[in-house]
Amino acid sequence: MAEKVAKPKPTLTVADAVAIIVGIVIGSGIFKTPSLVATNTPNELLFLFAWLLGGIVSFIGALCYAELATTYPHAGGEYHFLHRAFGRDISFLFAWARATVIQTGSIAMLGFVFGDYASQIFSLGTYSSAIYAALAAIVLTTLNIMGVQQGKWTQNLLTSAKVLGLLLVVAVGIFSALPSEAPAQPSKPSSGAFGMAMIFVLLTYGGWNEAAYISAELKDVRRNMLKALILGIAAITVIYLLVNFAYLKGLGLAGMAKSEAVAADLLRNAWGEIGAKFISMLVAISALGAMNGTIFTGARTNFAWGQDFKALSFLGVWHERTSTPANALLVQGLISLGLIGLGAWTRQGFSTMVDYTAPVFWFFFLLTGLSLFILRTSDAETHRPFSVPFHPLVPLLFCVFCIYMLQSSLSYTGVGALVGVAVLLIGIPVLMLIRRYS
Questions:
Q1: How far are the Cα atoms of 35, 274, 279, 377 from residue 374, in angstroms, in the given order?
Q2: Which residues sit opposite 340 in a β-bridge?
Q3: How far is it, in rounded angstroms, from Cα 219 to Cα 385?
Q4: How many CB atoms lie within 10 A of CB 422?
């Protein structure tokens, strides 16, 4: 009985929170998207500006989240904000989407990235990537069930290894000369190409919002949440700018545009196949770090969901001894394994999961931005330790970016996007059924 009344405890420091933010955001994107951004930018200056702009957009969003998270600290994060602003039905659909599409799809997607690159080092056969993905999901979920300390130390270790590895990539790029043969000039980007470049940039910056889910576990959250978000996004922006500068220095814009794996090509030029093996290991570590952070924060929504709906009360159990939502972590892990199986069946694991998650993610990101406007009006009496500066301009800009990304994710993704939207809509009859028991 004591377990059911146990609550999250503030055990995480600013450094822990920054490690979680950096670990989630710097996943596989920085090794995949720079070549696509280079294809859609006409010169090196605009290429680097796109990455700086991505940091600025993330900073604007972080200001909005800092107000929400410091005013309403809760383990449910966005779920709690949406509940207060829009009511139980919308928050239920968000929790449903996060449990079945957004978070579990992201865990599966990162699992496939880990599997793809781990298979470059040692293949396990036809379904090697899916096997590695499933093993990673099982091991990391188990570590997080064992206790918050195991989860956060795993995150800190993986994030440290990832950042050190990226700094080595930066050093190789900066001290490498361009290829002796002058590369061909990149083809002229089409009109609107910079907008396409920003889609890839913002996707690469995605994930900093997960900090909202540790607001109930962060020490002195009213002071430290803003600090963690600013430090995390500043660190990510600096790392991204340095890494992309290194790519430009080592490969040139045209060389990047033609590359399918810019980091591997950069290190192959410098160190041969040893360099290629090293980058495979680095990407695998990066994916594991992002995967662990996503597992850590994802189950917090399921925990809040279970506390609000009687029929799902088994999810709302916080275990005192381990200081984790163990049941929520277990359910999340099982759904992730199911999606990994789906990705293995389609034989296009990573791209299937990207299509599956993107539209649903940006729809609820937009609603979270709108919740700030609603709560400023409906709950104006509540003290706000931090208020977004230049309101309403800053949150309005954030919502405009979310609308742009929602439209883009529906326009440029495949059938998987429709499947993700369909799963979200299935949540409506599930809600009607759950209402009878809550």
A1: 40, 55, 46, 5
A2: none
A3: 15
A4: 10
User: DSSP string covering 383-401, please?
Assistant: --SS--TTTTHHHHHHHHH
Could you count the other beta carbons within 10 Å of the beta carbon of residue 258? 17
CA 59, CA 183: separation in Å to the nearest integer? 35
How far is the C-alpha of 198 from the C-alpha of 207, rounded, in Å?
16
How many domains is the chain built from?
A: 1
Kindly report, residue by residue over 370-383, the tens digit of the pLDDT: 999 999 999 999 99
Q: Which residue has the higher pLDDT, 185 or 262?
A: 262
Q: How far is CA 247 from CA 175, 252, 395, 434, in A?
A: 11, 7, 33, 51
- Is the distance from CB of 288 to CB of 140 less than 8 angstroms? yes
For residue 174, give the 3-state DSSP assignment: helix
What's the predicted TM-score (pTM) here?
0.79
Provide the residue range defining the domain that includes 138. Answer: 2-435
Peptide bond into 73 cis (omega under 30): no
Indicate which CATH number applies to the domain containing 294: 1.20.1740.10
Q: In sequence order, which residues have a C-beta less than 8 Å from that of residue 139 and are 6 or more positions away?
A: none
Query: What CA–CA distance (Å, rounded) separates 94 from 300?
Result: 13
CA separation for the pair 245, 237 (Å, rounded): 12
What gap in Å lies between CA 253 and CA 259, rounded to an integer? Answer: 10
**Joined tokens for residue 239:** 């790392």
